[in-house]
Amino acid sequence: MERFQWLKIAVLLWLFTIAGARELQVKHMELQIKQSDHGPVYNHTLAKILVEYASAVYMSDLTELFTWTCSRCDDMIREFEVLELIVDVQHCLQAFVGYAKDLNAVVIAFRGTQEHSIQNWVEDLFWKQLDLNYPGMPDAMVHHGFYSAYHNTTIRPCLLNAVRRAKRLYGDIPIMVTGHSMGGAMASFCALDLSVNFDGPCEVQLMTFGQPRIGNSVFASYFSQHVPNTIRVTHAHDMVPHLPPYYTYFPQKTYHHFPREVWIYNVGLESLVYVAEKICDASGEDPSCSRSVMGNSITDHLSYYGIQLQAETWGSCRIVNSNLNNYGVKDLRGNIVLSRDPTTTPYSAIVLNSEIGIQSASAV
Ligand SMILES: *[C@@H]1O[C@H](CO)[C@@H](O)[C@H](O)[C@H]1NC(C)=O
Ligand SMILES: *[C@@H]1O[C@H](CO)[C@@H](O)[C@H](O)[C@H]1NC(C)=O
């Protein structure tokens, strides 16, 4: 009996040692990579802040989002001024641009897909073709659908306007672009667009969570030249970063991620599990990061740093937009753009449209 107890303790100690050794190994590798090449520096604190923006943009109550009072809007980020909230109702897309006082940066966040089922959306990813030449970049191929979600919808013109306004208001501060899943794909096209096509200088940082591949290796290498400050966070067995597939035996012709991946994964067994973060190599397709495991989890896709990244309900492009007509325009197709200037209209001064007053009066 006593011997059995000792055995248990010995096994536990051994497990701790293994876990500790692996952590050391991970730390050591991170250090080596940081010193050996000059990629972007991964900042865990910043990642935990940006993931909250990527989560908030999923909220469907536009009033709460616009006034930054939604349930996901106040955890880590209190002093955020929404400048523009864009909803492309036609294509079921949503994004916002705002000023984050604590970061002294403009933050742009894109919502992920709102299709009927995430399962179906993920399965469709498998078949996405490289079917568009990225304009101005010879041999760079991307997926047309991802490209046009950003480039050929209400999103881009409204967003660029908002960035110009932000620059007038706050000067040339960094622009941090973020998004989860499909929103990460759109954030990538946006970051590249701001770096390459935007008038005037832009210090663009991109951090995405669980994004799919969006282009081929030629595109990936242009991308990392133009948006060097890019972190692509992947989580454990999240399926989406594995899609559309990368074929090792056909590297020039398949999809290829751009760097730099940071892979979050669990180390250890059962109650001894802890979370490790690995900063991956500069190839974009580090075989020892997320590619070292099966991409077979939707659950891992929907949560990063413990934050939920999905809408309250799937399968609807539901918008709750009761009373902000004073701040918005709606185009003929029903797309909505809400704008405000925080210097003249602080949140406290946002007045609700009088129509609502009349409605509630008549209801009473
Ligand atoms: C990481 O980001 C946080 C939040 O922006 C910042 O306060 C901190 O100084 C950064 N750390 C490093 C090492 O850059
Ligand atoms: C942009 O969208 C319009 C209509 O939605 C379509 O006719 C056009 O072909 C699209 N252009 C590109 C480059 O995708």
UniProtKB/TrEMBL annotation:
* Record bears the keyword Cell inner membrane: no
Q: What is this protein called?
A: Fungal lipase-type domain-containing protein
Write the signal peptide boundaries. Answer: 1-21
Q: Which residues form the Fungal lipase-type domain?
A: 107-246
Q: What InterPro entries does the database record attribute to this sequence? A: AB_hydrolase_fold, Fungal_lipase-type, Sec_MonoDiacylglyc_Lipase
Q: Which UniProt keywords apply?
A: Signal
Q: Which PANTHER family match?
A: ALPHA/BETA-HYDROLASES SUPERFAMILY PROTEIN (PTHR45856), FUNGAL LIPASE-LIKE DOMAIN-CONTAINING PROTEIN (PTHR45856:SF11)
Organism this protein belongs to: Papaver somniferum
Q: Which GO terms describe its biological process?
A: lipid metabolic process
Matching entries from SUPFAM superfamilies are given as: alpha/beta-Hydrolases
Q: What is the lineage of its organism?
A: Eukaryota, Viridiplantae, Streptophyta, Embryophyta, Tracheophyta
